[in-house]
Amino acid sequence: MSRAADYTIQGFLYQFNKTLLEILCSTDDCPITIEGIIEDIDIQTASGIKAIQCKYHEAQQNFTLSLVYKPILQMMHHFHNNGHMDVQYVLYVYCPNEEPHKYSLKKQEIAAVLKSKNQDLEKYTKQLAGAVDTDKFLKHFSVEFGQSLDNLTKDVYAALKNGGIPEIDIETLAYPNAIHAMATISIKHDEQHRRITKSQLLDDLQKIRKTAISRWTLALKSRKKIMAARQKQLKANLDKNVRTRYFLVEPSSIEDFDSNIILFITSFLDKYHFKQTHLKTPLFCLDCDPTKFDDIRFRLHQKGINVADGFVGSHFDKGRFFREPMSRKVAAGQIEKEFRMRLLRYDSNEEILNQYKCDDLFIIGDCQYDGLDLTDVDVEHVEAHSFVEIKYLLGVSNVYE
User: What keywords are assigned to this protein (predicted)?
Assistant: First the structure.
């Protein structure tokens, strides 16, 4: 990962942690909107709205006002066009060399912002210069230099504990799930669905017993412990011999899909589907185009893995697809099965998956499948982005990076 990409992810994590802290330090039923109409965090208080925008500048050792011209102008623009609203604007900034403190912007500094020659800011400066009431704006605006991500995380841990979350559950269960919740809520289209309260968040966290695995939770410093905790949670069902397991794999979000999909399938079969007592044939459903699907089917054949694909000529027969494999005894009392797995292309086959339900559905990749009926199905969503991570989580490998 490039340094710029790493800073971008850290910036999002910083905002998610700040959002979490604001929620956990609010009153139980105070409505807080994530990615609000005004700023990153909109807090509805008794006297109005507190609108917070986060800016994370890990790469900038020294703070200069020009770093935050844009968010200042954005807040000023909202104030100018919505002066009837009672809003307190807070710019929450992190720079490594700035200790946490509040900073009062001066009128001459606002004047310098409005005189900026940056062409990207012209749409703000042209409308606001000479028009906005800067004195009034400054009464509604403040800058707060924030603490480091590590210290912010420690405060979130403490707030979760104060909220009734058992300390033993915080690092590998409640905290990563809370981060995942912030990321998930922030991308919802409907503003109402981006609104949450402290009591709602804590209630949700206390009910969840599975650790969320996503690009955000795997970027946390506790990644190693999170991975180990999730592997242990998955092991409970994977160790059972008689479970019908489906894998729904979305290739575009898995970096090494083309080079490692066959090795992943082989490793899984060798670990969990090789005994006489392994009675349920696993199904691998790939959400890919027909050309990629045919290539994978051929590569499995080359690897010596017999599959049931349900095709008779060019026609798919679901009865043939879900039939049980014939078997025969071979040397040393071993059993040889007609096929070891079922292979399906997702396309519009959710109705088949809904009709022939599984015990465990593993959704692998950064994807959602709203057409699936998940009633009475144990769903395990693994948003890892490499088969190295996925194989570790499923217990077929001892390494995760």
Answer: Coiled coil
* Residue bearing tokens 């071979």: 330
Predicted local distance difference test score (pLDDT) of residue 348: 73
Lowest-confidence segment of 102-116, 162-176, 320-334, 379-393 by average pLDDT: 320-334
Q: What pLDDT is stored for residue 39 in this prediction? A: 87
- Judge whether 269 and 304 are in contact, CB under 8 Å: no
User: What are the residue ranges spanned by the domains of the chain?
Assistant: 3-207, 232-393
**Helical spans, DSSP H, in 187-243:** 198-207, 223-238
Task: Please tell me the distance from the alpha carbon of residue 335 to that of residue 356, in angstroms, as a whole number.
Answer: 26
pLDDT at 5 over 80: no
- At 44 the pLDDT is 93
- Taking the C-alpha atoms of residue 296 and residue 289, their distance in angstroms, rounded to an integer, is 11
Q: Is the pLDDT of residue 102 over 60?
A: yes
| Residue type at position 177 | N
Q: 232-393: which CATH topology?
A: Aldehyde Dehydrogenase; Chain A, domain 2 (3.40.309)
Query: What SS3 class is residue 246?
Result: strand
C-alpha separations of 16 from 8, 41, 53 in Å: 13, 10, 12
Q: Let me know how long the chain is.
A: 401
Percentage with pLDDT > 70 across the chain = 98
How is 85-138 classified by DSSP, letter by letter? S-EEEEEEEE-TT--SEEE---HHHHHHHHT---GGGHHHHHHHTTTS-HHHHH
**Secondary structure of residue 196 in the 3-state scheme:** strand
CB within 8 A of 211, min separation 6: which ones?
172, 173, 176, 177, 217, 226, 229, 230, 233
What does the alpha-carbon distance between residue 267 and residue 22 come to, in Å, rounded to a whole number? 44
At 4 the pLDDT is 58
For β-strands 315-316 and 311-312, DSSP reports them as: antiparallel
> 356: part of which helix (H) or strand (E)?
none
